[in-house]
């Protein structure tokens, strides 16, 4: 299976692990990750104002690339996924926005056909759930993580806005728990798993971010978790920076470990 | 050139006549010239062997004939249907116009039919026509043999073919195709894009040629009324000939309206019009509007579907908006 | 050719002030068919009517046109006048030259000209009128009530009281409905069972009432006064007439792990069961999904212990067809699923419950014997949070809940809060509300008592999230009055779930051709003036199937529906409206298009034999209109492309004649 | 002598339950509208066959308006919903044929909306009057 | 002045696509907001103050920078009002009117640390700048 793979800038710098293990695991699962040529930063945050066009063009370029290759576009970073998915939704549902974007795109060197949200946007976890299947994953596991009690941390970007992301049940998600089970470990359910870590204010108001992050890591710990797993570099940063007493790892690292491809 | 050979049809029909599955066969028969193929009923293998044709001129849609043919005896009727014909077939079944049990349908794949007018324009004094894969060879009385591209002679409805998939059959010759993405609404959109004056002039020009021969109505598989309003003195609409500048418009608007949601866009009306009026553009306008206003609907895609004209939602658009919406589409 | 009389009314100066009535009468007398044309001061007066009657008799008139006020005013008057003179009342047409002419136009030439044209149109129409006679149909003097909750029970009792036989069809093994599950009722706090069960007994013992429990309606045909209904009696594997309801089987059944739906799955029952002690009919039912005997043929304990031999494992569903004159729908409501509101953690914690579940937890016959205990650990909850409007008043585009107010939640929550504070004064009770809606007799007083006397904390604001942490439920909510975000450690959270019509209502509406709104509530014939009738003649509405209702409202509507039914069943014959659709069978194609647009199901198709001109006999499928059901809207006439379907009194030809007359 | 101004001929189909009653109410309240409007009473707007509209135009009408109960308020529950679809398609077709779209209209007028009825008719008459005589759909035989 | 404020309100409503009239004042947004305690004005007040045109106090309040854009209020609002989008539009309006970023580029290095992911920096710029 070939998919268009959008790594995003954080995965090239501070979150190299997230990227590296995603690549190794994908290979082990027989998925070929095709990076779009000349991809640009997704912008880090989806600006919900409908008259913001320029900041969303890089996502549209990546989406058009995927559409032309007739592949789903896959990301591992929650933020990239959120931005690209929301941009795609706006292209499908907001005619004014879409026509303005297409007008911009028509100015490009090799103008593409008008884009109307045809590409399929998948998070790496969705790719595993919907295209690979957790049963297949389970069968591919070489080093089951038996006995580990792991808390899945969703944060907000993967889930919300629920209508747009359509990732899982917003209030009671299960995809990462199912993922953890497939790897042989035991998921820990705790109520703060879909609360915000305070990510975006990390720079602006570290005290507020600390409060939010600690609430998450404390809740996970109180429910008996030994480890927190996340898909988001910013969540990881916030939790670790603010003194999470539990180790925080990327889901791809766990995946690579279970598939026996962590070290090569 | 058609994928299935004429002999395959003859053999199939003869076998079904011989084993008593069917009593009669509805198929195409050669006319005076190679291009004027006509519908015919065959009752013996000999007739079939002698007269049945299957070539690029077999445009006629037999669905409507089944209403009368199935009533004639208790035996089953064998009918050959092209993909587009099966939509009409299903639509007639939806309307309970004949008994499905009395018909044996053989689906025949279709590579598109030729436009007789285009053929006639391209050659004078046609003596015979033969098909050779993507070429058509026309023997003429004056200019010898002409070889033409088959594609250049295709009928408009076949260029814009909406489906190569049979929606009904008992038996299929060859492989079934798919529903196609066609550009059949492009012409409608082009008219919508004109100014009102241009549109009026366009239709005035087209419809004023109408001679009220009723061929469009008589061939239309949706026009199967026991008594047509235009033939019924009690309807207040009866009129045998166009008597004023509006009469023919009224006839065509009402006719198109009577088949709203029922017209499968088989294109027979335009095929038979002796004045070459593009009547399908009226029906297609309704189909396009239905798709835009109420969601896509293809009459005859399945038996028993409910046409949008006899359905509603509480959120439908207002008639005054409908015209404006039409503008945006243009 | 008709012989038509024209009668132009002055209406004092109302018409004559702006219309030259003499000129109108004069102009119309030369219209085709007109033999006499007169004007008079007041046509509707006795003298005016006498003038018309005499003219009809003297001139052997076959039709009349009255140029006067609106037909909505005096059409009925002039029809009676015509009938009194021996003329068919449907040979009368009115030209409205007052409301639609003299009153809206200023000068006499304009008014006169228009009046003449309106008159001509009426003459043109009457030329094509035909005498019409309204049809009559008999009335089956028996009523069907669908649904055996308090609405259905009350309706059935009232109808039976008037001496008419009634059948109740109930899908559950017992009647009683939602009210049977309740503990106390507001605003009087009397026990629900104490007031409901006597009514259940009344209905069971009333010899005019038959109860078909564990049954459903599967088909309805016919029309007002003459419905034919097929009722499916599901196999309960226990002979209803033999079972004594002793309950021995339900004690001995080895299959103990069946979720008890009467207690909303909070405890278990056996595979053979009687839903509750006061069930009516009090007979056991075997649940085929759980009974090992039915599933694998091994067991048979109930049959062995039954002393009267009532068990019948071979039982099959039975169908029964009955005739009814009237049908009452009383299918009731259900709370909506809380699945899409998991910010309140309903599916994550057993201690987040719905209000109906709380009713069972507080009911002496419930899973806890009436002691309020947490479902998770059986402890007494000390802090309880009530969340109002869960799924009610949601924007329609929210796709989660319902746009409407569920109406009953404010009051039952006040009741719950009050009862809890009364029984367990050491409990803190918080109610988060958006608005407290108490428009009912003694309702607001009741709510105020909860606050003032019982010390329930009413907080204006909404709960944002409930997080199960340990054995607590952490509730995060806003307090809009104090401008605070509250964090409450609760032991129990109670959700006031929105209510929705029972799922059986939609297919039932289709069978009855009764209309529903977008929320699947049945629509009434008129929202103010005919609130208990459905627009489909002979179908009546009782209780929450028409909209959210509390018990007092349900009972009064049930009585109202019963009185409408009684009014109908008292009649021996029904007279219809003769202006109904009619199909010309020779022209009909049998295409079924008209049937699709008929809102009343008045059109059916049948295969009929026709003698053809060539003397052969042909079987043709043709439409036929049930004149007793048709209301005369005319939707079918336009759907019919051949023009076979026409509307009496408003035929295609008549309307076109009017168009022609106006456009001449 | 003043030159007679152009008077359009307007046919209005009104449903018996709402719009016809609305027209009566306009009369009761003496709300004037041009006499060019001639009302034909039908039981429901869904009784209006497209044929009637075309017939009116053929015989020389300059505008045709159909009035019914507001959607959701139909006396027959669903009649006006069918009207809405039929007329949406018919009007779109007339427009497609180049016939001035302003000559046809559907309005929902309740029994309580006498003022709306009069206002609607005033507006429709002036719109059609501005278009002038209906040349595109006239019947040469019948028009004087 | 009056007009400027009206125009500004319209602009905010258009940018955000929010119709504050849909709000039924239930306060669920404020009951759900994780940053409630850091705010001077709370999500439900954003909605009602924008509706009444009371924009100045909002635009000069630090509260608009306290929103985490976590969208919990958007998902849980029973009326689809989407307060977070409104707050974002307010923030953008302030920044556009000021013609400068809320955080200045030379302020940022002082706020950074070794581990902070790009994502945070880029989004901080995007979120608080134009």
Could you explain how this protein is built, in words?
The complex is a heteropentamer of chains A (264), B (330), C (664), D (144) and E (130). Chain A folds into 2 domains: 2-124, Glutathione S-transferase Yfyf (Class Pi), Chain A, domain 2, CATH 1.20.1050.140; 134-259, Rossmann fold (3-Layer(aba) Sandwich), CATH 3.40.50.11810. Chain A has 11 helices and 8 strands. Chain A has helices spanning 16-28, 57-69, 78-93, 95-105, 124-132, 134-140, 162-165, 175-182, 206-222, 233-241, 251-259, and strands at residues 2-5, 32-34, 73-75, 121-123, 149-152, 186-188, 227-230, 248-250. Chain A is globular, with a radius of gyration of 18 Å. The model of chain A has no long low-confidence stretch (mean pLDDT 92). Chain D has helices spanning 19-28, 50-58, 79-96, 114-131; strands spanning 10-15, 37-42, 63-68, 104-108. Chain D has a 4-stranded parallel beta sheet, sandwiched between helices. Chain D is built from 4 helices and 4 strands. Chain D is 38% helix and 16% strand. Chain E has helices at residues 2-16, 28-32, 43-51, 55-59, 72-76, 83-98, 108-111, 118-128. Chain E is 54% helix and 0% strand. Chain E has 130 residues and is mostly helical.
CATH topology of the largest domain in chain A: Rossmann fold
Number of separate structural domains of chain D? 1
Shape of chain D: globular
Overall shape of chain A: it is globular
* Structural class designation of chain D: alpha/beta
Strand content of chain A: 5-15%
C-alpha end-to-end distance of chain A: 22 Å
> Level of helix content of chain D?
25-40%
């Amino acid at each position: 299976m070939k998919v268009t793979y959008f790594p995003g800038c954080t995965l090239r710098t501070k979150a190299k692990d997230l990227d590296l293990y995603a690549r190794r695991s994908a290979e082990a699962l027989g998925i070929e990750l095709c990076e779009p040529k000349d991809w640009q930063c997704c912008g880090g945050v989806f600006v919900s104002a409908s008259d913001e066009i320029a900041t969303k063009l890089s996502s549209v370029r990546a989406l058009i690339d995927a559409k032309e290759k007739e592949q789903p576009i896959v990301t591992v970073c929650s933020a990239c996924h959120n931005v690209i998915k929301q941009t795609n939704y706006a292209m499908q549902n907001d005619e004014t926005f879409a026509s303005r974007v297409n007008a911009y795109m028509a100015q490009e060197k090799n103008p593409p056909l008008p884009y109307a949200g045809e590409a399929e946007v998948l998070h790496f976890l969705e790719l595993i759930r919907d295209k690979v299947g957790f049963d297949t994953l389970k069968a591919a596991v070489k080093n089951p993580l038996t006995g580990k009690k792991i808390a899945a941390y969703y944060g907000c970007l993967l889930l919300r806005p629920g209508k747009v992301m359509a990732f899982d049940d917003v209030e009671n998600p299960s995809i990462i728990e199912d993922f953890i089970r497939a790897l042989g470990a035991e998921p820990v359910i705790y109520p703060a798993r879909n609360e915000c870590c305070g990510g975006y204010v990390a720079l602006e108001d570290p005290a507020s971010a600390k409060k939010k992050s600690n609430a998450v890591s404390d809740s996970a710990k109180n429910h008996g978790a030994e480890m927190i797993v996340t898909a988001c570099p910013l969540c990881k940063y916030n939790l670790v920076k603010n003194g999470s007493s539990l180790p925080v790892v990327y889901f791809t690292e766990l995946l690579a470990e279970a598939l026996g491809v962590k070290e090569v | 050139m058609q994928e299935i050979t004429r002999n395959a049809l003859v053999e199939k029909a003869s076998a079904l006549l011989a084993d008593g599955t069917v009593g009669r066969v509805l198929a195409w028969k050669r006319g005076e010239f190679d291009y004027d193929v006509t519908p015919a009923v065959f009752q013996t293998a000999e007739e079939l062997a002698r007269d049945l044709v299957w070539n690029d001129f077999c445009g006629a849609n037999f669905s409507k004939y089944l209403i009368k043919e199935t009533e004639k005896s208790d035996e089953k009727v064998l009918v050959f249907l092209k993909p587009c014909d099966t939509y009409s077939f299903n639509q007639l079944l939806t309307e309970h116009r004949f008994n499905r049990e009395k018909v044996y349908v053989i689906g025949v794949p279709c590579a598109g039919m030729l436009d007789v007018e285009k053929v006639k324009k391209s050659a004078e004094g046609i003596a015979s026509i033969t098909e050779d894969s993507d070429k058509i060879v026309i023997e003429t009385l004056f200019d010898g043999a002409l070889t033409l591209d088959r594609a250049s002679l295709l009928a408009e409805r076949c260029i814009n073919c909406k489906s190569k998939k049979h929606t009904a059959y008992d038996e299929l010759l060859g492989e079934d195709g798919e529903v196609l993405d066609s550009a059949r609404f492009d012409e409608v959109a082009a008219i919508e894009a004109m100014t009102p004056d241009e549109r009026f002039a366009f239709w005035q020009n087209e419809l004023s040629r109408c001679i009220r021969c009723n061929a469009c109505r008589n061939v239309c598989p949706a026009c199967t009324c026991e008594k047509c309003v235009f033939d019924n003195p009690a309807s207040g609409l009866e009129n045998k000939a166009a008597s004023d500048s509006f009469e023919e418009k009224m006839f065509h608007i009402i006719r198109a309206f009577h088949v709203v949601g029922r017209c499968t866009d088989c294109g027979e009306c335009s095929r038979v019009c002796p004045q070459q009026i593009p009547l399908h553009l009226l029906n297609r306008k309704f189909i396009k509007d239905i798709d835009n206003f109420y969601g896509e609907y293809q009459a005859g895609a399945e038996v028993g579907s409910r046409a949008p004209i006899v359905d509603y939602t509480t959120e439908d658009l207002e008639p005054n908006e409908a015209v404006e919406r039409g503008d945006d589409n243009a | 050719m008709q012989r038509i009389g024209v009668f132009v009314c002055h209406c004092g100066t109302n018409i004559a002030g702006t219309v030259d009535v003499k000129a109108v009468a004069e102009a119309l007398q030369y219209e085709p068919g007109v033999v006499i044309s007169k004007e008079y001061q007041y046509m509707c007066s006795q003298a005016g009517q006498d003038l018309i009657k005499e003219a009809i008799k003297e001139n052997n008139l076959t039709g009349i046109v009255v140029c006067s006020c609106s037909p909505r005013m005096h059409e009925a008057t002039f029809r009676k006048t015509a009938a009194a003179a021996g003329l068919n009342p449907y040979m009368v047409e009115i030209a409205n030259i007052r409301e639609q002419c003299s009153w809206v136009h200023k000068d006499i030439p304009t008014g006169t000209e228009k009046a003449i044209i309106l008159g001509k149109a009426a003459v043109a129409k009457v030329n094509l009128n035909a005498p019409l006679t309204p049809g009559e149909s008999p009335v089956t003097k028996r009523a069907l009530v669908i649904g055996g909750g308090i609405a259905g029970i009350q309706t059935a009792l009232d109808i039976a009281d008037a001496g008419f036989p009634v059948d109740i069809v109930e899908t559950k093994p017992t009647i009683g409905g939602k009210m049977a599950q309740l503990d106390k009722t507001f605003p009087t706090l009397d026990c629900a069972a104490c007031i409901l069960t006597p009514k259940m007994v009344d209905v069971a013992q009333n010899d005019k009432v038959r109860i078909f429990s564990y049954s459903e309606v599967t088909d309805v045909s016919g029309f007002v006064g003459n419905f034919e209904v097929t009722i499916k009696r599901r196999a309960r594997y226990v002979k209803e007439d033999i079972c004594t309801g002793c309950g021995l089987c339900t004690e001995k059944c080895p299959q103990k792990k069946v979720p008890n739906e009467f207690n909303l799955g909070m405890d278990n029952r056996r595979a053979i069961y009687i839903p509750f002690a006061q069930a009516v009919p009090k007979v056991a039912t075997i649940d085929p999904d759980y009974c090992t005997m039915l599933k694998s043929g091994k067991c048979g304990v109930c049959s062995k212990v039954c002393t009267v031999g009532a068990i019948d494992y071979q039982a099959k569903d039975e169908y029964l067809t009955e005739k009814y004159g009237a049908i009452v729908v009383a299918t009731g409501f259900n709370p909506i699923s809380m699945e899409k509101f998991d910010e309140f953690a309903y599916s994550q914690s057993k201690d987040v419950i719905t209000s109906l579940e709380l009713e069972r937890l507080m009911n002496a016959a419930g899973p806890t014997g009436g002691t309020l205990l947490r479902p998770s650990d059986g402890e007494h909850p000390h802090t309880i949070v009530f969340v109002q409007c869960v799924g009610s008043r949601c924007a329609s585009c929210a796709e989660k809940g319902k746009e409407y107010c569920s109406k009953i939640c404010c009051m039952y929550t006040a009741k719950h809060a009050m009862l809890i504070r009364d029984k367990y004064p050491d409990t803190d009770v918080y109610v988060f509300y958006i608005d407290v809606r108490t428009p009912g007799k003694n309702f607001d007083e009741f709510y105020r008592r909860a606050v003032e006397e019982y010390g329930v904390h009413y907080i204006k604001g909404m709960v944002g999230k409930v997080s199960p942490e340990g054995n607590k439920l952490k509730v995060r909510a806003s307090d809009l009055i104090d401008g605070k975000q509250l964090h409450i450690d609760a032991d129990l959270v109670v959700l006031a779930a929105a209510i929705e019509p029972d799922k059986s209502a939609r297919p039932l509406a289709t069978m009855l051709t009764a209309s529903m709104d977008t929320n699947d509530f049945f629509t009434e014939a008129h929202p103010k003036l005919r609130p208990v009738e459905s627009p489909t003649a002979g179908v009546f509405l009782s209780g929450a199937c028409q909209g959210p209702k509390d018990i007092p409202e349900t009972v009064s509507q049930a009585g109202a529906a019963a009185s409408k039914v009684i009014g109908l069943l008292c009649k021996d014959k029904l007279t219809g409206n003769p202006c109904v659709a009619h199909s010309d069978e020779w022209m009909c194609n049998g295409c079924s298009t008209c049937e699709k647009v008929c809102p009343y199901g008045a059109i059916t198709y049948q295969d009929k034999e026709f003698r053809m001109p060539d003397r052969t006999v042909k079987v043709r499928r043709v439409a036929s209109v049930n004149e007793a059901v048709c209301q005369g809207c005319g939707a079918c006439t336009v759907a019919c492309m051949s023009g076979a379907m026409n509307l009496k009194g408003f035929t295609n030809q008549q309307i076109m004649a009017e168009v022609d007359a106006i456009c001449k | 002598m003043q030159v007679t101004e152009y008077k359009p001929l307007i046919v209005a189909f009104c449903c018996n339950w709402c719009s016809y009653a609305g027209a009566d109410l306009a009369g009761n309240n003496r709300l004037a509208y041009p006499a060019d409007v001639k009302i034909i009473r039908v039981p429901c707007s869904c009784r209006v066959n497209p044929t009637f509209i075309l017939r009116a135009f053929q015989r020389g009408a300059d505008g045709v308006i159909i009035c019914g109960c507001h959607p959701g308020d139909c006396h027959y529950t669903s009649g006006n919903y069918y009207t809405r679809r039929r007329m949406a398609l018919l009007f779109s077709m007339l427009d497609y044929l180049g016939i001035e779209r302003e000559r046809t209209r559907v309005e929902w007028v309740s029994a309580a909306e006498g003022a709306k009825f009069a206002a609607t008719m005033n507006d429709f008459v002036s719109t059609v009057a501005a278009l002038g005589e209906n040349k595109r759909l006239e019947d040469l035989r019948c028009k004087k | 002045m009056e007009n400027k404020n009206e125009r500004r309100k319209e602009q905010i409503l258009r940018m955000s696509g929010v119709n504050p009239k849909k709000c039924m004042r239930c306060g669920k947004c404020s009951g759900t907001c994780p940053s409630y305690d850091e705010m001077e004005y709370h999500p439900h007040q954003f909605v009602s103050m924008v509706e009444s045109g009371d924009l100045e106090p909002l635009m000069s309040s630090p509260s608009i920078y306290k929103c985490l854009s976590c969208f919990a209020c958007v998902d849980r609002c029973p009326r689809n009002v989407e307060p977070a989008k409104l707050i974002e539009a307010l923030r953008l309006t302030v920044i556009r009117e000021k013609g400068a970023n809320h955080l200045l580029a030379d302020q940022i290095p002082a706020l950074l640390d070794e581990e902070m992911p790009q994502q945070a920096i880029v989004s901080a710029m995007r979120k608080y700048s134009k």
